[in-house]
Automatic annotation (TrEMBL), chain A:
The keyword Transmembrane helix applies. Keywords: Membrane, Transmembrane, Transmembrane helix. The chain crosses the membrane at residues 81-101, 108-127, 133-150, 162-184, 207-231, 243-266, 278-300, 307-328, 334-356, 377-402, 414-438, 459-479. The keyword Membrane applies. It comes from Knoellia subterranea KCTC 19937. Residues 127-428 form the NADH:quinone oxidoreductase/Mrp antiporter transmembrane domain. Its main location: membrane. Pfam families: Proton_antipo_M (PF00361). It is a multi-pass membrane protein. GO terms for cellular component: endomembrane system; membrane. It is found in: Endomembrane system; Membrane. This is NADH-quinone oxidoreductase subunit N.
UniProtKB/TrEMBL annotation, chain B:
Keywords: Membrane, Transmembrane, Transmembrane helix. GO terms for cellular component: endomembrane system; membrane. Residues 129-417 form the NADH:quinone oxidoreductase/Mrp antiporter transmembrane domain. It comes from Knoellia subterranea KCTC 19937. Signal peptide: none annotated. It is found in: Endomembrane system; Membrane. The lineage of its organism: Bacteria, Bacillati, Actinomycetota, Actinomycetes, Micrococcales. The chain crosses the membrane at residues 6-24, 31-53, 73-94, 106-127, 133-150, 170-192, 212-235, 277-298, 305-325, 331-353, 374-394, 414-435, 463-486. Belongs to the complex I subunit 4 family. The keyword Transmembrane helix applies. This is NADH dehydrogenase subunit M.
Length: 484, 499
């Protein structure tokens, strides 16, 4: 069997791997040249990011590759606008995490793991066949476990163990789901036609529904959607902060990309009778449970990273909300919402890192932020903007627009009761973020953490992220228009 | 051009004062803010007269446009916002909420003034937005600055109260506006457009069930903002705690966003659905009138009392809207403006008294206001008289027509006539509590000349603010035509064929 190849489309995934190989070679030859390695990793990510640009600005030509010959042509790689956007976001957020780790402390293991994870994330969002999809999804997530554990702290090992157990269960479910899907449709690629054919036969329909629900469960672990979220608060608080930021941004983007790939074939069957009710029901349960549990738990936290961890859970619900519509618009909306969340989340994590410095694992109570506006206006401003965007309140207009974007497909699909639950979640969410926001005002207390000496990189990430949020708030089309 | 200036000048200056200019000294910040408010206000008045249009694509993928235009319904409200905007900034010379009870600085004056300007900008944007989604976004703009005003610059005596009141404000309003958003999205999706001009025609062929659902979501969401009984519980707390300027903005501008939204969204676009839920709204309005009136008869805190009287007045507005007729909408609009002016006047006076006395507990015996500060006393009587609906003053037209309209409603004659009768009783309650306040505060008790609680009379900018508002109360009372002539055409176009 011959495959058509378009290397240009594959480059975003291949360049990080090339950088990874180069780093290993250079490390073997000159073990002391650590700064060079970091630069190499950065270049790898930036070059890969540049390769995604044509997919964003290009015309409407299908950007497909790895196709089998006609007449039964199936393509296993899709580099369209939606994919390219997610790829760009994954690469840039990995770059931001690299900056947070800081040039001086990034070891070769960290660099290799980061690049591997980025490459996996980039590939999974483009994959259109189950084999590639499954392997690259694991490639995107497994290195993160090592990154969490790669830290001489008992708690970090515990967090990594939790994540590892979770990942194994998730992997098991994903393999099962893949097998069921192939059994149901007889097709290892994820296409609407084969799903529609299978949908016509009642037994196969049941099996396809079951396969999707099992795949959903497996992915819900990676998205930290309730009830598969238990690892999130433990891992995010015990691991190194930059890796927590990675889990909240790049990993989330990869997971949602993977979910979008799985749900795409449902376009073909959503209007049939009987429709894919079981899939919608599963998505609705995940959405509602995540939104409510995440926000209510976040309301009770006083440790900021734990608060951000629970808010990740809540935001997973918001990400899933537009997907319940099972339409193209819904998938695009989910991507936009994830994008906004990832940027705001990164800014928040970077601000926390900039405030606490290297010993960022200690004393991250809300009280440490009292009077931040006076003490440290730059970081305070960035953090405040991120919180407002997460809460969806102007001047963080892009957060509000993201909420509108997320609600729209669900309302259009007639799921307005879910939208009403989302209203409750949105209001509780405002309470969560405003609680933190309110602390930033006022007089600084004496026991505030001292301003760390080395924080240029973290501050830079926070400020660049804030700039993105400000521009996107003034011109939301720049962000919203990326995916379509 | 005027429209752009109206939105950009106060908005940009407000944002700058809250971020980059936080460290400005008080005098400079006040002058800058006043200039911005005056320029913005003047631009708003010009824009209300010339009616320019801005129409630009903003988020094409969502079909949202930068579409601002002032029409007959919004023109009086924009003008009201312009005047109130200038007055609240000017009031910063009379009351300085950035100082704590002992005179020490507790916050930045620039931030306070910036928040005032941002609230005004949000209101301008919401009143002039011609796109449903844009209206929602503008509606949300006022939340954070108002939260800052209540939570940071509110009552200096109790931090817990401030936190509670500001949290209540933001959470209640957010739940209302997000419900409204679901309604807007449903409406926009079903009708296929978000433009206010095209929506009514596009939404006309929706089924009754859909119309009712949309109208319920929109009305429920906006009822929080109005506020309609039983969703009003955030208002007294917010009013009691907010600084005077905050209370004035809340009563004169923010509550108007709610009623304006009711006219603009459910009434204009899904009239059949709205008329189905109108009886519920009317009953809620009437309960609000009675409930507010009864509480006012016993309430001891004067600021809370005015807040509850706002609930009662908004009950009249809602009742008028529920009638679904042209007269009803006219009554609601003039009632809106009148309430804006009257409550602004009362809050300035009561805020001033609270500032002088430290509290406005009616149980404390104080010297008669008519003796110690005759000018303030006269203004108080004017405000109370207008509030009880004395003919010749602003409040009369709103209440009178609000009682006439439900007598001849479009539908549900029986329920609405009953409501009108009960509301008339509520109007009598208004007379009772107004006279109660007048007796306690204005007539007062005889207290020896050296007693504490002597209030200095109003002067300077405070007097100017009071005088402008008082003049407006009389002007609207004597010649309501100035408002009606502006709104008439737009209202008949809006209500369409209804009698």
């Amino acid at each position: 069997m011959t495959l058509t190849m378009d290397w240009g489309l594959l480059l975003p995934a291949l360049l990080p791997v090339a950088a990874l190989a180069l780093i290993l070679v250079v490390e073997a030859i000159a073990p002391t040249a650590r700064p060079v390695l970091v630069v190499l990793a950065g270049f790898g990510l930036v070059a890969a990011a540049a390769e995604t640009i044509p997919g964003l600005v290009g015309d409407d030509d299908p950007r497909l590759t790895l196709c089998t010959p006609a007449p039964d042509g199936r393509c296993m790689w899709d580099g369209g606008a939606l994919t390219s956007t997610l790829q760009l976001a994954i690469l840039l957020s990995t770059l931001a995490v690299l900056a947070l780790i800081s040039v001086r402390r990034a070891g070769v293991i960290e660099l290799v793991m980061l690049l591997a994870s980025a490459s996996g994330g980039v590939a999974v969002v483009a994959a259109r066949d189950l084999g590639t999809w499954l392997i690259t999804l694991e490639l995107a997530t497994l290195p993160v476990i090592a990154l969490v554990a790669w830290r001489d702290r008992r708690a970090a090992a515990h967090g990594a163990l939790t994540l590892l157990t979770t990942s194994l269960v998730s992997f098991g479910l994903l393999v099962l789901g893949t097998a069921l899907w192939v059994t149901a449709t007889g097709d290892p690629t994820l296409t609407g036609e084969s799903l529609a054919t299978a949908w016509a036969v009642p037994e196969q329909r049941t099996l396809a529904g079951l396969a999707t629900v099992v795949l959903l469960a497996g992915l819900a672990f990676k998205l930290s959607a309730v009830p598969f979220h238990a690892w999130t608060p433990t891992t995010l608080t015990s691991g190194p902060l930059p890796i927590s930021a990675l889990l909240a941004s790049s990993s989330k983007l990869a997971a949602i990309g993977a979910l979008i790939v799985v749900l795409a074939p449902y376009d073909a069957v959503v209007d049939l009778s009987p429709g894919p009710h079981v899939v919608v029901a599963a998505l609705v349960i995940l959405t509602v449970a995540s939104m409510l549990t995440g926000t209510v738990m976040a309301l009770r936290q006083t440790e900021v990273v734990r608060l951000l961890a629970w808010s990740t859970v809540a935001q997973a619900g918001w990400i899933l909300l537009p997907l319940t519509a099972l339409t193209v618009a819904g998938r695009q909306a989910a991507a936009v919402y994830t994008l906004v969340y990832a940027v705001a989340g990164l800014v928040a994590f970077a601000a926390v890192r900039a405030i606490h410095g290297r010993r960022v694992e200690d004393g991250r109570e809300l009280t440490a932020y009292t009077g931040l506006f006076r003490r440290d206006p730059l970081t305070g401003g960035a953090l405040a903007l991120a919180l407002l965007v997460l809460a969806g309140l102007p001047p963080g207009v892009i957060g509000l627009v993201a909420k509108i974007v997320a609600l729209r497909p669900a309302v259009s699909a007639g799921l307005w009761p879910v939208a009403v639950v989302a209203v409750v979640a949105a209001v509780l969410g405002i309470a969560v973020y405003v609680r933190w926001f309110a602390v930033l005002f006022g007089e600084p207390t004496i026991d505030a953490p001292a301003r760390p000496a080395q924080r240029r990189a973290s501050l830079g990430v926070a400020l660049i992220g804030s700039a993105v949020l400000v521009v996107a708030s003034a011109l939301p089309q720049l962000l919203v228009g990326l995916v379509s | 051009m005027a429209l752009i200036a109206m939105l950009v000048v106060p908005g940009a200056v407000g944002l700058w004062l809250m971020t980059g200019g936080r460290a400005l000294d008080v005098a400079t910040a006040r002058v800058i803010a006043l200039v911005a408010a005056v320029v913005g206000g003047a631009a708003a008045v010009v824009a209300s007269a010339q009616r320019p249009v801005i129409d630009r694509a903003w988020i094409p993928d969502l079909g949202v446009r930068w579409h601002f235009e002032i029409d007959g319904i919004s023109a009086p409200l924009v003008a009201l916002t312009a005047v109130i905007g200038v007055l609240v900034v000017a009031h910063a010379w009379a009351e300085q909420p950035w100082l704590d009870a002992s005179g020490g600085e507790r916050g930045s004056a620039a931030t306070y003034l910036g928040a005032l300007l941002l609230v005004v900008t949000g209101a301008f944007a919401a009143f002039s937005a011609r796109d449903a989604v844009l209206f929602f976004i503008a509606f949300e703009v006022v939340l954070v600055p108002m939260w800052v005003l209540i939570g940071r610059y509110g009552d200096p005596h109790s931090e817990a109260k401030r936190a509670d009141a500001s949290a209540r404000f933001i959470l209640y309003t957010a739940i209302g506006s997000t419900l409204m958003l679901v309604g807007i999205l449903l409406l926009v999706w079903q009708a296929g457009t978000a433009d206010f001009a095209e929506l009514p025609a596009a939404a006309a062929d929706l089924s009754l069930g859909q119309q009712t659902l949309i109208a319920t979501l929109l009305t429920l969401g906006l009822a929080v903002k109005v506020p309609v009984f039983p969703l009003h519980t955030w208002l007294p707390a917010a009013h009691t705690t907010a600084p005077t300027a905050g209370s004035v903005l809340l009563a004169a501008v923010l509550l108007k966003l709610g009623t304006y939204g009711l006219v603009r969204l459910p009434l204009a676009n899904v009239p059949d659905g709205f008329s189905r839920i109108a009886p519920v709204l009317a009953i809620a309005g009437v309960i609000g009138i009675l409930w507010g009136g009864l509480i006012c008869l016993v309430e001891r805190d004067l600021k809370r009392l005015i807040a509850f009287s706002s609930v009662a007045h908004m009950g009249f507005v809602v009742l008028a809207l529920a009638s679904g007729t042209e007269t009803g909408v006219q009554a609601a609009l003039i009632g809106n403006i009148a309430h804006g002016v009257i409550s602004a006047l009362l809050f300035v006076i009561v805020g001033g008294l609270k500032h002088r006395w430290g509290s406005v507990d009616l149980a404390i015996v104080r010297p008669a206001l008519r003796e110690v500060s005759p000018r303030l006393g006269f203004a108080l009587i004017l405000g109370l008289a207008a509030g009880l609906g004395l003919p010749g003053l602003a409040g009369f037209w709103g209440e009178f027509v609000a009682l006439v309209a439900p007598w001849n409603p479009a539908q549900h004659t029986g329920i609405l006539r009953t409501c009108a009768v009960i509301a008339a009783v509520g109007a009598a309650l208004a007379a009772a509590y107004s006279l109660r306040v007048a007796r306690i505060v204005w007539v007062g008790d005889e207290v020896s000349a050296d007693a504490p609680h002597r209030a200095a009379d109003t002067r300077g900018l405070e007097l100017a603010v009071v005088a402008v508002l008082g003049a407006a109360v009389v002007a609207i009372g004597v010649a309501p035509v100035i408002v009606w002539s502006v709104t008439a055409d737009a209202v008949s176009a809006l209500v369409g064929g209804a009698p």
